[in-house]
Amino acid sequence: MSEIPTKLKAARITQGWTAAHVVRELRRLDRERGNHPYGVETVKRSLRLWENGDRAPAGWAMPLLEQLFGRTAGELGITEPEREQRLREQARAVLSETPVSVPEQAGPVRYTATGTALRLLRTDRPAAVEGVA
Question: DSSP character for 129?
Fold first, then answer.
């Protein structure tokens, strides 16, 4: 772990927020969007990984972090990994029944039982698929 805080951690400290406060707010925002939020311990562990720069936030967390801090992902120093972007595009294609081009080197996409692919889209899917969960 680096002694220099990531932009995300620096933003939290600048706001005077504890990690517990950010966890509560992320879960509240996710619930307000009509989702069933991840558990407290899961979000706490994820926040620690994001703040230490060990992992980029998952797709579900990006818009919530941006909303909570009032900054873009770039300003927070968090970017969506290429693999997650491909997963998001493929999930959009499944929902809209539009073919998507997948580069050969991308490798297989694994959809988990938790519905990760669909969860990534809950905040930005087209109105035509609002009934899809």
Answer: G
Same domain, 87 and 120: yes
Contact 63, 102 (CB under 8 A): no
* Residue range(s) defining the domain that contains residue 51: 7-69
Indicate whether 75 belongs to any domain: no
Residues 6+ apart with CB under 8 A from 62: 73, 78, 80
Which of 16, 37, 40, 20 is closest to 28 using CA atoms? 37
Query: Do 69 and 26 form a contact (C-beta atoms < 8 A)?
Result: no
Whether 52 and 94 share a structural domain: no
Q: Is the entire prediction scored with pTM above 0.85?
A: no
In a domain, 77, yes or no: no
pLDDT tier, 95 (very low <50, low <70, confident <90, very high otherwise)? confident
Outline where DSSP puts E strands in the chain: none
In whole angstroms, how far apart are CA 60 and each of 20, 40, 111?
19, 15, 15
Q: How does pLDDT run across 11-40, given as a tens digit for each residue?
A: 999 999 999 999 999 999 999 999 988 999
